[in-house]
Amino acid sequence: MSNSIPFNHIYLIDGSGYIFRAFYGIPPMTRPDGTPVNAVYGYTNMLIKLLADHESDGFAVIFDAGRESFRNEFYPQYKAQRPDAPEELIPQFGLIREATRAFNLPSIEMKGYEADDLIATYAREAKEAGVKVTIVSSDKDLMQLVEPDVELLDPMKNIAIGEEQVLDKFGVKPDRVVDVQALAGDSVDNVPGVPGIGIKTAAQLINEYGDLESLLNRAEEIKQPKRRQNLIEHAELARISRRLVELKRDVPVDDDLSGFDRMDPDGSVLRAFLEENGFRSIIARLGETLGGGNEAGQSAEAEAAPGESEYELVQTKDALARWIAEANKEGIVTIDTETTGLDAHSAELVGVSLSCKAGKACYIPVGHRSTEAAAAADSDQGGLDLAGPTDGSDDTPSQIPRDEAIALLKPVLEDAGVLKVGQNIKYDMIVLARYGIEMAPIDDTMLLSYVIEGGLHGHGMDDLAQLHFGHSTIKFKDVAGSGKSQVTFDKVPLDKALDYAAEDADITGRLHRLLKPRLVTDRMTTVYETIERPLVPVLARMERTGIKVDRDVLRRMSNDFAQRLAELETQIHTLAGRSFTIGSPKQLGEILFDEMSLPGGKKGKSGAYATGADILESLAAQGHDLPARVLDWRQLAKLKSTYTDSLQEQINPETGRIHTSYAQAIASTGRLSSNDPNLQNIPIRTEEGRKIREAFVAEEGCKLLSVDYSQIELRLAAEIADIESLRQAFLEGQDIHAITASQVFGVPVEGMDPMIRRQAKAINFGIIYGISAFGLANNLRIPQNEARNYIAAYFERYPGIKAYMERAKADCKKHGFVTTLFGRKIHIPAIGEKNPARKNFGERAAINAPIQGTAADVIKRAMIRVPRALATAGLDAKMLLQVHDELLFEVPEAQIEETTAVVREVMEKACDPALKLSVPLVADAGVGRNWAEAH
Q1: pLDDT tens column, 651-662
Q2: Of 375, 377, 306, 325, whose CA–CA distance to 347 is shortest?
Q3: Running DSSP on this structure, what letter comes out for residue 484?
Q4: What was the pLDDT predicted at 686?
Q5: Do 595 and 723 belong together in one domain?
Q6: Which of 247, 286, 735, 857 supports an S-S bond with 120, CB 3.0-4.6 Å?
Q7: Is 703 helix (H, G, I), strand (E, B) or coil?
Q8: Residue 154 pairs with which residues in a beta bridge?
Q9: What is the pLDDT of residue 401?
């Protein structure tokens, strides 16, 4: 080794490759000022992992200085077709270089040369100085540099690439890779190559003729006529291609290799960078290495990304007892269940994974089957198998019988002194409840993430593991296959099941240790502890209860819809003058705009006319019958397929009820969403839509009770925006829409035209959604100028609304989020975007989110308190559904009056004592044999 080089091993990092991997691998996120930072966050995590995993004493990060290099001088088309960088990535390029310097690493780039050329030059210099080289990149172009003491490290797969791997990839040794690439070309970089020759053929030719120039000189010898002709005609392109792909190893670099010795970062500089970009979880993970203490009170070990792990397959009761004892000792255990499907109400339990410490987890199989037993189970139409597999064949997996494992686990999972932690733990609670386990108390890492960073990114485990640890989790398809060959988890071999399931518990535990302390530092403890966490068992109970559905009503409606669809189809074909596929936008567009010559036809990029609902509604408003009938047909077709047909299939055969699933961590405002099936989107503005609710019925001897907040968002708008006149109108119980119409349009309340009131209602609700003149005009079917005048008159009458809107937008731009009255943070990344459409969306969200989010918090608080209030009153009502501002109950007929009074009181006082509203909340109640009657 040269005395001038202070290290014997150097890592040359392909920084540009890291940038794009981080950008596309991490969900969108922004820092407080709205600047996108997902690539910066991912890049920072990757640097941390690389520096922690490799103790080399030499490091440098190499970047591309720009799109063009010396190659464009002799081949201008080089990389010419590459698209521009995504708009959200551009401001992150500079920040990533800042991150590099914050870690005290050399950040190297040079105009006129690509990062690969600099890497090639430094690799040569290091090799000549006797220094071992590791190039950190998955770029195939760098494989030409591989030789003894020069290897590639693929950061995505964490595997070393030497001569053997290059031979497998290209079919030639590293020194001939450029010849193969020259022949095959590269469409991504616009390297022409020789037509008709791919990597495999190129490797055969180079191995036979030795090198590119020899091949081109002897091209006449090629036996295949077309290949021979292409090699002769395109010989010069092949030579140009070789110059394009061959890396330059003698770049006159400005930065000397001897300056790349590894130095520890300055903790205060690194902390300042991390704080500026809002990387709180990284600060917590790095802890004392940053100086100034560990704000989250976490050890570096606790949040370290998964590296070495000890996962145990638990197949005996003694081993399980040992893990249960550990959970009791620690007072906290992470749990995850594996099942035969995604429906928690019907899937069988296959196994349970547990973890009490980072890097240590177990998997307890209880329902894995032999090949023979699995085949038998597939053909069995019987009920739930609670005891587990009983097949005695030789290939039956060794496992504890399910009922015995359940009996052993039940005490610790129900022990109030042991906290159970899960990722989307509601699913596990519902599954285990079907086996007699009422799991409590609980924590949920998905909800911790959602409360802390709602709106910034997704909160699934895969996203969180990548986001916080730079770790790619094992995917379900990796162990169970995909497509038609995918198997259910009970058929997954135990060795694969162990790694997959135990990792889930391990990662969940790591996330919990990282995120839970942030409730305090981010001041989100109240939202989590008083709203989101206590709501989990309430939702689990509602989902398990389900709602009864009358299949006969749905069947009759489906038949009716089918008959009416057939009639509409006949009418539509008659109006069109010929038959066509009504559900085909392309065919419909041709009918409307080519054959019937109706106005307003606009073609999209595909060449087909746009036929969306807005276009058809506009044509229908002009008096054209065909688009009006198509709208009717579309509405009926959707109702039939989405509801009356599919709901029949979703009735649980054991309970006769539909069990929807509520998602807490989807909508950034805090609203719940319903899926499988979505019962919140059943249309109620049309007669046909309202009829669907008739199929949702009460059990014999009961009725359905619907209790709905009256105009809660308008009431909260009066409170949050501090509009005294609106507040007073609500206090006096006046008709708020009539009052608005009177004040904005100057008409008396008495004898008001219902149309005027409807316009005022549209303005009232539109304003709190940040509606534009265009949007209001579209809603009311009036000219935009008229809509603009309505909005101006509204702001003149209620100036506080305008002031609130401007204040909300300014606060959101400053902080990157808005808050509800209960302190929930709703991050709105779009507020800082340059794209006008996205920015306008962000501004509308900033106006509405505090109002809608507070309404969501209010009803969640009510949902948590209602079951306890009913139990205290000795009432037997069951809460079945939540649909935005409405709660639906199944109530014994004799208890209707008392239940109504209890529920209304809880809902109307859901803010007390946490929040004293100056505007009263009002809950209206309705009762009926079915949902339509009750609402």
Answers
A1: 999 999 999 999
A2: 377
A3: G
A4: 79
A5: no
A6: 247
A7: strand
A8: 159
A9: 95
Instruction: List the end-to-end C-alpha distance of the chain, in Å, as a whole number.
Output: 83
Amino acid at 292: G
Residue 443 lies in a domain: yes
pLDDT at residue number 734 = 82
Residue count of the chain: 935
Helix (H) or strand (E) holding 106: none
CATH number at residue 599: 1.20.1060.10
Q: Is residue 816 part of a domain?
A: yes
pLDDT for the residue numbered 126: 92
pLDDT of residue 814: 86
Q: In the beta sheet, which residues pair with residue 108?
A: 62
User: Left if phi > 0, otherwise alpha if psi is -120 to 50, otherwise beta: which for 701?
Assistant: left
**Residue 443 φ/ψ, nearest 5 degrees:** -130, 150
CA angle 73, 79, 81 (to 5 degrees): 125
Number of C-beta neighbours around residue 590 at 10 A = 18
- Residue 821's pLDDT is 94
Residue 689 CB-density burial (10 A; 0-12 exposed, 13-18 middle, 19+ buried):
middle
Q: What residues of the chain score a pLDDT lower than 70?
A: 1-3, 156, 287-289, 291-308, 370-396, 913-914
Our measurement of the distance from residue 93's CA atom to the centroid of its chain's CA atoms, rounded to an integer in Å, reads 24
| Domain final position from 259, 278, 301 | 259
Query: Whose CA is closest to 668, among 565, 869, 812, 493?
Result: 812
Neighbours of 813 (CB within 10 A): 18
β-pair type (442-444, 419-422): parallel
Number of domains in the chain: 4
Residue 340 identity: T
In a domain, 536, yes or no: no
Q: Domain check: are 781 and 636 in the same one?
A: no
Give the domain CATH number at 494: 3.30.420.10
Task: Report how far apart, in Å, the C-alpha atoms of 811 and of each of 685, 808, 816, 818, 827 are.
Answer: 36, 5, 8, 7, 11
Give me the pLDDT at residue 294, please.
46
Domain membership of residue 534 (yes or no) is: no
CB count, 10 Å around CB of 141? 21
| Shared domain check, 614 and 756 | no
| The pTM of the whole model exceeds 0.70 | yes
**Domain span holding position 629:** 550-650
Report d(CA 466, CA 665) in Å as an integer. 18
